[in-house]
Amino acid sequence: MESGAHSATMETGWGGGAAPFGASWQKTMMWIFIVTDALLFSGLLCGYAFLRQANSAPWPDRTEVFSIPFIALTDYSVDKLYALKGEIVARGVKAITGLDMPVFQKRRFQHGALRVEQLRQRVPQREVEFRKQFLAMYQ
Questions:
Q1: For residue 77, what are the CA distances in angstroms to 52, 71, 80?
Q2: Of 54, 76, 93, which one is at a domain's C-terminal end?
Q3: Distance from C-alpha of 87 to C-alpha of 104, rounded to nearest angstrom
Q4: pLDDT one-digit tens code per residue, 4-42
């Protein structure tokens, strides 16, 4: 069914005269969603602001709660930061599941995940051959 036929069906089912605000029902529903979403999140933000202002005890500093000395551990090095992130994730997985997860060195997308020789073992260099291989998996 085309969208025009569907909206015509909805319009005939309206029966209340002109469409409200001269908008289609799809546009009206989208605006209702946007308004209710904005009201919900503004209410949450106002509640958070109220709790922050109404509480007389000072909130803890985030460096006291999360006392991880990132600068001392990474020395402003992106590579050290990625290694630290991998180590944290590996330790979390080990603590929860008991499995040892390897920590791989960070590789940029431009470098690729595989060396060219390994890539050519899996993916043919010519596009036509690759397409034939790919389509063969789904036939």
A1: 35, 9, 5
A2: 54
A3: 9
A4: 555 555 555 556 667 667 778 888 889 999 999 999 999
